Amino acid sequence: MIRTEGLAPGDPLHSARSLAAEFEVTVPTVREALRRLEAVEVIQFRHGSGTYVGGGVRRRLLANPHTGGDLASVLELVDARLLIEPGIAAAAAANRNDEQLAALEATTQNALVPQRGNERPREHFHVALAAASGNALVCDTLAALLDVRSRDQVEIRRRYHDRERDHEEHIEIFRAVSEQDAAAAAELTRTHLAAIRDTVITLGEELG
Fold first, then answer.
1. Are residues 35 and 89 in the same domain?
2. Are 192 and 89 in contact (CB under 8 A)?
3. Which pLDDT tens digit goes with each residue over 195-206?
4. Is residue 121 part of a domain?
5. Domain span at residue 146?
6. Looking at the whole model, is its pTM more than 0.85?
7. HSE of 14 in the Cβ direction (CA atoms, 13 Å)?
8. Of the four listed, 92, 100, 169, 200, which is most buried by Cβ atoms within 10 Å?
């Protein structure tokens, strides 16, 4: 229905009762379906206002809210990022424009902002880095990966809490991109993610 009616994030949906009548099912069935869609952010409940299309409707990948958060899952995400992001950083250094560079610079401050629970920055540094690559599909893919594995991202931030170091390394990556030094951007990104991986492993061993 969202697709056939051309609805976009923020658009309102009919009430559960109206949807039940439209699809010829019971109201509890509709409510259960809506709860499952809410879990992957395809729809959004607003207290006292109704049900709306959520931002997840545009994602190419959807999260499983019941997985992730353990050490193996966190390391899988970091390893995936190690494979993907150095190349993204090199492409960003080669292709970035002034607008993308300004957006990337703005996100370097994220590391210094305290976050609680499932809070996430409005614009992720590494997503802004991917946007600077000039390849929209690459940017969408990385953003979707971080959304799909958001619980793992929260766990990474909880385990890797050296905010000053994180900030300094983001600044170094930004400078390499600004100077269009693709090799340095790739290596700095690789070193940055490898340090996160090492910290996660060390803490996991200490806790395990």
1. no
2. no
3. 999 988 887 765
4. yes
5. 71-207
6. no
7. 13
8. 92
